Fold this sequence. Notes:
142 residues; alpha+beta
Amino acid sequence: MTDEEIAAFLERQGHGVLSFGGETPYGLPISFGYDVIDNRCIFQLVSGDTSKKQDYIDASPAVTLVSYDWGSIDNWHSVIIDGEMVEIPDDSPEAVDAADIFAESATAVGLSVFEGSFDDLEPSWYTLQIEEMSGRRAPDLE
Length: 142
C-alpha cells in the first residue's frame, strides 16, 4: 500500500490491536484516531486498578499497532505500525487536539468493559510516534 492508501485506511478504520513488549508480551484491542497531518495515532488509555497498560508503557514505550479489516479472501487490508507511546499532558492544547482527532475517527467503545466504578478509572491521552509503518492489501486479481 502507498503512504496515501495507508493514511486513508487508518483514518477510516479507528481500531486495532496495540501490543507491548517485555518479558511477557501484552496485546489489547483498542480504538485510535489517526492524525493524517502529523502522521501519528492518538489513544485515550483508560486505566483502572488492575490495568497493565501503564506498567508496560513505564517499562518501555515501544509498541506495535496492528489494524486490519477482512471482507473476504480478495478484499482485505492490514497496517502494522512500530513506534513509541508518548503521554500528552491533560492540561495542554495538544490534549484538546488529541480529543478532536480521536472523536473524528476512533471506533466508539463504552466504558462498560471495565470492572468497578467509573470514578476509579483514569483516562490519559497518548500519541504513537510512528517510526515504521507498512501496509498490505489483497492482490488485484484482474
